[in-house]
Amino acid sequence: MDIPKFTIHDIPFLVPFLGLFFRLAARLAGWKIIGDVPNYPKIVLIGAPHTSNWDYLLFLYGITAKRLRINVLIKNTLFWPPLGTILRFLGGIPINRTKSYNVIKQGIEFINAVDETIILIMPEGTRSYTEKWKSGFYHIAQGAKVPLILAKVDVKNKALLVGEEFPISGDYEKDIVEIQAHFAPYMPKSPTK
Predict the structure, then answer these.
(1) 3-class DSSP state of 116
(2) Of all helices (H) and strands (E), which one includes residue 23?
(3) How far is the C-alpha of 9 from the C-alpha of 156, rounded, in Å?
């Protein structure tokens, strides 16, 4: 498992400075964060809706404003020099998505290999319109026996809502309907996607 040894969080002044910058920029734009991520050592955090690159920037705002130590599972083909070094520094974890590798197993192995992490996953898996969410986030949280926390972007009210814990029952078909219902009231940046 390729675990970053030195990340942005290992530079004492950088994360507080970025957090202050993002809080000020968001405040000027009228955005706010509602809630807090529970204080568990290991978490799978899912963010939705994810219909534009702006959504990712809003999650980045929330992450830095709350000074969270986040890791993101990223396809390994993006880890070429020098981009790979930058992605690792930002908490990126290379995941092999070819058929011969099990992405869920790799996610579980990473969680089990570290003392603390918040894995951020966008369950839609794309910024384009999709009928179905990918199920990997659910199976990683269930397999690693870690809490599943929800983070919602509400463009209409300019809010990022974080911290709601979803209790995994083990019945994916039932749970995914309930999880998606938690996100349904929130306006995405691009509703047609």
Answers:
(1) coil
(2) helix 14-29
(3) 32
